[in-house]
Amino acid sequence: MKKRALHPSQHGFTLLELLVVMVIIGMLAGLVAPRFFAQIGKSETKVARAQIDSLEKSLDQYRLDVGRYPSSEQGLAALIERPSGLTRWSGPYLKKGIPPDPWGNPYVYKSPGEHGEFDLLSYGKDGQPGGSGEAEDITNW
Question: What is the CATH number of domain 26-139?
Fold first, then answer.
């Protein structure tokens, strides 16, 4: 068998060329990744605000039926299961159950609230009161 001679156009890439391409890709990733992840944080905050709005509407429907908001002891669970002693309850008021906030933590519900008839909030990404940025509390007031 006769070996074919390689033409200059059939040679592979040099190690230096591969390294240059990898450095360029790394620089692009370094520029794009922070902007991408910042958008994810903003979208989680928007989801939390939308979920709080939905829970508020369910709580308002509960109040229209029962005549008052659930107590802090009953909590948001009163939107899913009839509390004992209520005859005018027409739930469940949420189709898919009580969602956790976008960071996997339960929403905090207090009735009566300090800022209105009830307070509904998520402590944000850190799960602790206060904070700023993605860790900022998201509230219904």
Answer: 3.30.700.10
